[in-house]
Amino acid sequence: MAQPAGPSGWPDWWVRRSLLSWALWPLSRLFALLSAGRRSLYRAGVLRAERVGVPVVVVGNLTVGGAGKTPLIAELARGLQQAGWRPGIVSRGYGRRSADDAPLRVDAQSDPAECGDEPVLLARLTGCPVMVGRRRAQAALALRAAWPDVDVILSDDGLQHLALARDIELVVVDQRLWGNGWLLPAGPLRESPGRRRDATLGPEAALQQVSGGGRHFALVRSPGDITHPVSGQTLSAAQFVQRFGVKPLSAVAGIGHPGQFFAMLQALGLTVQTRALGDHQPLSTDALAGLPPDGPILLTEKDAIKSAHLPPVLRERLWVVGLRLQLPADLLPWLHQQLEKARGLPTS
Q1: What does 4-61 look like in DSSP terms, one character per residue?
Q2: Helix 69-82 and helix 117-126: axis angle, to 10°?
Q3: Is residue 6 one of the residues assigned to a domain?
Q4: How many domains does the chain have?
Q5: Of residues 158 and 20, which shows the higher confidence score?
Q6: Rounded to whole angstroms, what are the CA distances from 329 to 44, 185, 220, 224, 280?
Q7: Average pLDDT in the 216-243 region?
Q8: Backbone angles phi, psi at 142, to 5 degrees
Q9: Which structural domain, as residue segments, surrounds residue 286?
């Protein structure tokens, strides 16, 4: 369902219940029945989930829109690489121009219009094999055929894509949590917050409001280095504030939760004129129109992927804000143990 862009990434009637939410509530009940029926068909074996020969970790949301899945997958992939695993990543490729169902290989130089912005970002951040496809099981099988040494698959989203059998399910939450608490289309939920999963990950303040949901792992987000993509110059957040803090600044975000990016900049002491775009929305000259002239424009790493086609005069103004995601010390050891169980190996 189309949503007006705003700092939360959700329409207001998904954040709090309104007359429109109530009007749509009967459709939410129908959505719940259809979802439960589909899940029952998989449990009964009428519909089959496909195994791909290696452990599969699905990182997803219970709500519409992003809550930080992509940076988490990048950190998990790097951590697994350091532990000796050879991860591959599959993704739906949201925002891709092609409607072709065939799996598509992605690398750091791929065109985000052809394969989606997040897969290209993951390829650049991790160096892992990446494959996109609407049917994730098919994409995972194609990835393994292309890279036979891959021994674990990370699925970017796909929690509700039950055709891909999985061994571990991780649900990511942010400060918005479950919004108004209702399922689509009256609210932002794709599934009930009580859905079984292995772990829930997000800010400590959000996790304190989550009951159940397997293990809880608190994530800490902070701005990383800030890079000028044209010159390659890189500044620490403190250096950027010292250099540009008194100048008119703009911040543009086309991610699932733009307000989270803007709040991170404001926590640095920066005063920015913000513009929230739709998630995966192409970055265009029109999207940047009306911002303060001449001053720096701050982007997320995901939006920067889509900036190569902008006019040089605009590209000169862009600065890309990296994200540091601090994982709790016990997350990777726990994940390693779960993966060894999935492979049928002893864990002690």
Answers
A1: ---TTSS-HHHHS--HHHHHHHHHHHHHHHHHHHHHHHHHTTSS-PBP-SS-EEEEE-
A2: 30
A3: no
A4: 2
A5: 20
A6: 38, 38, 12, 20, 32
A7: 95
A8: -65, -35
A9: 222-325
Encoded amino acid at 299, one letter = L
Per the CB < 8 A criterion, the answer to whether 119 and 156 are in contact is yes
Give the model confidence (pLDDT) of 80-133 as tens digits.
999 999 999 999 887 676 666 789 999 999 999 889 899 999 999 999 999 999
The single-letter code of the amino acid at 334 is W
Q: Report pTM.
A: 0.91
For the chain, the average pLDDT equals 91
Q: What is the pLDDT of residues 28-76, one digit of tens each?
A: 999 999 999 999 999 999 999 999 999 999 999 999 987 889 999 999 9
CA distance 160 to 190: 8
| Best CA proximity match to 67, nearest among 123, 9, 119, 118 | 9
**Distance, first Cα to last Cα, the chain:** 47
* Cα–Cα dist 212/131, whole Å: 33
**pLDDT at position 246, please?**
82
237 residue type, one letter: A
Q: How far apart are CA 130 and CA 80, in angstroms?
A: 15
CA angle 69, 72, 75 (to 5 degrees): 155
30 vs 27, 76, 200, CA distance in Å?
Answer: 5, 36, 27
Inside any domain, residue 82 = yes
Tokens of residue 191, six digits? 């599934």
Which among 262, 306, 280, 307 has a CA at the least distance from the CA of 92? 280
Q: How far apart are CA 139 and CA 91, in angstroms?
A: 8
Kindly state whether residues 127 and 272 are assigned to the same domain: no
pLDDT exceeding 90 applies to what percent of the chain?
78
Residue carrying structure tokens 């911040």: 251
- The answer to whether residues 257 and 315 belong to one domain is yes
